[in-house]
Amino acid sequence: MSDEPLTVLGQVGVIAVLGAIGAALYRRDFHSGWFLAALALYVVYDGLLTRAFFTIPNLPVDANWNWLGKLMSFTGMLIVASLPMFGLRRVGLTLKQKPGFRTPLIVFAGLMALFAYLALSDSSEMADFETIAFQWTMPSIDEELFYRGVLLLAMNEAFARRVSILGAGIGYGGLLTSILFGLAHGFGYSEGSFYFDAVTFAITGVPSLILLWLRERTGSLLLPMLGHCASNGLFTVI
Predict the structure, then answer these.
(1) Are 226 and 113 in contact (CB under 8 A)?
(2) Whether the Cβ atoms of residue 63 and residue 130 lie closer than 8 Å to each other
(3) What is the pLDDT of residues 84-100, one digit of tens each?
C-alpha cells in the first residue's frame, strides 16, 4: 500500500494545527468554511497529482517523470479555478499586472540571478531531454496554479487580515500556503514513520515566500510561474 495517504494526512494535520492557532489569533477575520475548503482542496490536488495515490499507471508508461499526474492535477485545479466562487482572474490567471511593476521586476531579476548562481555552482551534468522538458514546464504551471492560485485564494478568504510588505498584501493564509509548499517537499510518511527534512523544507519554503510576494504584488501568476520554471529548469542545462 502507498504511504501517500498518510503523508497527506500528516501534512494536512500540521496545517490544521497552524490554522487553528491562526483562527485563535484572528478570530474576527477567520472564516472556517474557506479554511476547510483549502484543506480539502489539498487532498484533492494530491490525489490527482499522485494519480489516485499511485493506483493509476503513469503515461507514457516508460516515462521517468510524473507527466500524467501533473496533467491531472493541473486540469483539476483549472476546473476549480473556473468555478464562480474562484474565477480565473482571481486566482491570478491573467497577464495584467498591478501598477508599479518595476519593483516586482527587480525582485524577479534578483531571484533569477540567485537561481543562475546556484545552478552554476552545481556540479551535476546536463540532464536528459525528458528531464529538461519536464522541469521547464510541468512543476511551474501545475504548482503555481495550485499553491499561489487556487489554494492561496481559499486561504486568503479564510484569513482576511493582510499586512502590506513592500506593497504586497500578505496574510496568515498566504504564509500557510508557503509552509504547506515546504511540507509537500520535505515532510512525509515512509517506512513506518513520519520524517522531516529541514533543509528541503527551507530551500523550497523560503523561495515560496518570494513567489508569494510576487503573486500578491502583481496580482498575476506570470512572474511566479516564470520564476518557478527557471528555478527548476536552470539546474538541468547549466
Answers:
(1) no
(2) yes
(3) 999 999 999 999 999 99
